[in-house]
Design brief:
Strand content: 15-25%
Bound molecules: 6-O-phosphono-beta-D-fructofuranose
Number of helices: 11
Order of helices and strands: EHEHEHEHEHEHEHEHEHEEHH
Helix content: 25-40%
Structural class: alpha/beta
Number of strands: 11
Shape: elongated
Distance between the termini: 35 Å
Length: 357
């Protein structure tokens, strides 16, 4: 078969490991030819690709990023986008396309498959771990480890200076990284987009702790957290290439507000793209490899419109359309049960209709 592969959305540790597994099994077991489309759907529309073979996969298992480039945006942004995708399938004699992407890319993949019948298989990717249908996405474990390592280091400096350190992590719509890194790192406060951010509650928790003689606190905040209306100034974010708010900075506001309200010195650390770059953890290398192998199996089974996924310890297939327009949010019981400081009941009561993992 002639099979295309693309990576879409933000990069993520483990992308190259997925590509490597697809190419190795595709070529060695099935004699497939694999084309890696450059810069996501742009490469499909422009028919720009590189040939991927086993020899070009050397050294990729542990390499972060994606060797075929990635980009946000989709063929639906162009009047002739879908026609160009169809033309690419015809002219390149593609028997199938593997789309490795997050919520946005998988939604686009699902829509193209539904509208055109083109043979597409999905692989869920994102450090945010917010894709419905899979228990875990690859890249998440690495991001959590990077953030946890940072928190471990920040404890000692926070304690030495009796400071609050606010650690801002990624997590646009769901606070999985904040929840896991916060729990693993023993944070005092964990703030996620799933719960409206009440700065008064945050300060109360920190002050309560200080009155007990603990003069340093770590507060972990997901970048997508949103303050309760009227409690703190809301950030005016610039927009990114696809018109979404370019998040980042909520931690700066929280640190300033903590210092203003409690008088306790506060600092801010934004982990930023460090949590998305570099080598994947061993867990993510294994998950990425399993996803890649499952994707090439799905292609050869003609499981079009399906996404490979992790369910418990098993790799399964789920319909791509199951992911469309949905976000897998954090199980708030997890935070309530494990968080070192109780989350105020009033805050939990405001939880939106969250989808459990
Ligand atoms: O991949 C998702 C994500 O990590 C979000 O948490 C974050 O908002 C976004 O990527 C930032 O990506 P970029 O800086 O590439 O726009």
């Amino acid at each position: 078969m002639r099979i295309g592969v693309l990576t879409g959305g933000g990069d993520c540790p483990g992308l190259n490991a997925v590509i490597r597994a697809i190419v190795r099994k595709g070529e060695s077991v099935h004699g497939d030819e694999i084309l890696g489309f450059i810069d996501s759907w742009d490469g499909v529309m422009a028919q720009t690709f590189i040939r991927l073979d086993i020899s070009s996969m050397r050294g990729l298992l542990h390499k972060g990023g994606t060797i075929i480039g990635t980009k946000r945006g989709s063929p639906f942004d162009h009047d002739d986008g879908i026609d160009r995708v169809r033309r690419c399938f015809d002219e390149q004699r593609l028997d199938g396309l593997v789309v490795i992407g997050g919520n946005g890319s998988l939604t686009v993949a699902s829509m193209i498959h539904e509208q055109t019948g083109l043979p597409i298989v999905g692989v869920p990717k994102t450090i945010d771990n917010d894709i419905v249908g899979t228990d875990v996405t690859f890249g998440f474990h690495t991001a959590v480890q990077v953030a946890t390592d940072a928190i471990d280091r920040l404890h000692t400096t926070a304690e030495s200076h009796n400071r609050v350190i606010v650690v801002e992590v990624m997590g646009r719509d769901a606070g999985w990284i904040a929840a896991y890194a916060g729990i693993a790192g023993g944070a005092t406060v964990i703030l996620v987009p799933e719960i409206p951010l009440d700065i008064a509650d945050v300060c109360e928790v920190i002050e309560r702790r200080h009155h007990r003689g603990r003069y340093a606190s770590i507060a972990v905040v997901a970048e997508g957290s949103v303050p309760v209306e009227g409690t703190m100034p809301r950030r005016d974010y610039a927009l990114d290439a696809i018109g979404r708010p370019r998040l980042g900075g909520i931690g700066v506001d929280i640190a300033a507000e903590i210092e203003r309200r409690t008088g306790i010195e506060a600092r801010i650390v934004q982990i930023g793209h460090v949590q998305r770059g570099g080598t994947p953890t061993a867990y993510d290398r294994v998950l990425s490899t399993r996803f890649g192998l499952a994707a090439i199996d799905a292609v050869h089974d003609g499981a079009w419109g399906q996404m490979v996924a992790l369910s418990g310890t098993e790799i399964v297939r789920v319909p791509l359309e199951q992911t469309v327009g949905r976000i897998k949010t954090v199980d708030l019981e997890l935070l309530r049960d494990v968080a070192p400081e109780p989350i105020p009941a009033a805050t939990l009561a405001q939880r939106p209709g969250a989808e459990k993992s």
